[in-house]
Amino acid sequence: MRCLAAVGALLLLTGCDAHSEESDNATARPALERAADDLSLAIGEGQFPGLTSMMVSYAGQPLAEAYGDGVSRRDRHDIRSATKSITAILIGQLLEDGLIADVHTRVATLLPEPFAELPHDDPRRSITIEDLLTMRSGLACDDWVPASVGHEDKMYETDDWTAFLLNQPLAHDIGEHFSYCTGGVILLGRVIEGVTGETVTEYADRKLFGPLGMQSAVWATTPEGGTDTGGHLELTARDFHQIGVLIANGGTYGERRILDQQWLHEMIGVQTDVYERRSRYGYLWWIDEQAMGDKTVRYVYAHGNGGNFVFVVPEFGLVASFTGTNFGSRLQFQPLEIFLSTLLPALMEERP
Fold first, then answer.
1. Which neighbouring-strand residues pair with 297?
2. Is residue 224 assigned to a domain?
């Protein structure tokens, strides 16, 4: 197995004890191991421009860890909008801590100050936590449409991102229409800080990253002094992969439960359709499926611009993560193509 990093070190990320290479070979599916091995070599040789790292694990065992030219395991990667999926995990922690009653709680009741300028009968006051988690706030904010008045690029030019979002008019009925809106996830970051009395960094370190043994996280900040929970979180490739391992393990790390099982079920379960796309959406996680022979394989994933993905096949415990710098380019979807054309078929090759 020609992985590009020490196997024992990677096993520490999964909460498992170190095993010998011979033991790994005995438990991993040979076809999947060969595919991961070949991809490792190709990435190391620069055959996928802009792809900076890949990690693959199966059933808690590492199969591959590879880096592009000039990139090492110590480097942090800007995972862009994959940050949103981690924000959803933190919202689940708020619910488990009893700091939010449920996802139907209105944001305005949790954050009265940002909503203070809105009339008492303004429908925007009825936007819920769930509306933001499912991108159905109804606000005129669509990051996939450059002309959208609430587009994230316009938000970034302002001094108060929350005020910018809440000043957008309603374009759809609240809770009805999917519209990809980074600003709504920024607002969830305000919720985290408002109900905990901590920064997002502090809360995430205490409730998620610390228990997972992750020490690399660097969050970006907003102009008003908050945290950019919609993008630009920087993680090492190993720590990014660990998020996928947590999902594949059903929310546990070793013997410790970190993520409530019911929240995990809801977070990666279908919550809304996405217009004009085959993928569906949970709570800030993407959901899709692929026909493999006579079987349909369901997978969930986090996605950030540039080629930053973590794919999880919950049924079989496959986790594949990638980082990349192909921002705004079709090349950012190389990892999706690799996952669907190489890793997933290899996983299923020897299944009855």
1. 290
2. no
* Domain containing residue 98: CATH number: 1.20.58
- Cα-Cα end-to-end distance for the chain: 25
At a CB cut-off of 8 Å and minimum separation 6, what does 202 contact?
A: 196
For residue 153, with 0-12 CB atoms within 10 Å meaning exposed, 13-18 middle and 19 or more buried, which class applies?
A: exposed
Digit-coded pLDDT (tens) for 312-338: 999 999 999 999 999 999 999 999 999
CA 25 from chain centre, in angstroms, equals: 29
Calculated CA dihedral for residues 183, 124, 262, 180, nearest 10 degrees: -40
Query: Is 60 found in the same domain as 95?
Result: no
User: Is pLDDT at 168 greater than 80 in this prediction?
Assistant: yes
Task: Tokens for 156, please give them.
Answer: 């970034």
Rg (CA), the chain: 20
With b for 16 or more beta-carbon neighbours within 10 A and e for fewer, the 108-144 pattern comes to: bebbeebbeeeeeeeebbebbbbbbbbbbbbbbbbbe
Rounded distance between C-alpha atoms, residue 22 and residue 281, angstroms: 40
Q: Where are the beta strands (DSSP E) in 126-274?
A: 234-236, 252-253, 256-257, 272-273
Smallest Cα–Cα separation from 244: which of 1, 11, 77, 56? 56
Predicted TM-score (pTM) of the model is 0.92
Would you call 236 helix, strand, or coil by DSSP? strand
- CA 137 to chain centroid, in Å, comes to 20
Domain containing residue 70: CATH number: 3.30.450
Q: 82-96 and 182-196 helices cross at what angle (nearest 10)? A: 30
In which domain, by residue range, is 55 found?
Answer: 7-74+233-249+296-349
Phi-psi region of 155 (alpha: psi -120 to 50; beta: other; left: phi over 0): alpha
Do residues 285 and 85 make contact, with C-beta atoms less than 8 angstroms apart?
Answer: yes
Are the beta carbons of 163 and 172 closer than 8 angstroms? no
259 in a structural domain: no
pLDDT digits (tens, 9 = 90+) for 242-275: 999 999 999 999 889 999 999 999 999 999 999 8
Spatial distance between the Cα atoms of 225 and 299, rounded to a whole number of angstroms: 36
Number of domains, the chain: 2
Strand pairing of 256-257 and 272-273? unpaired
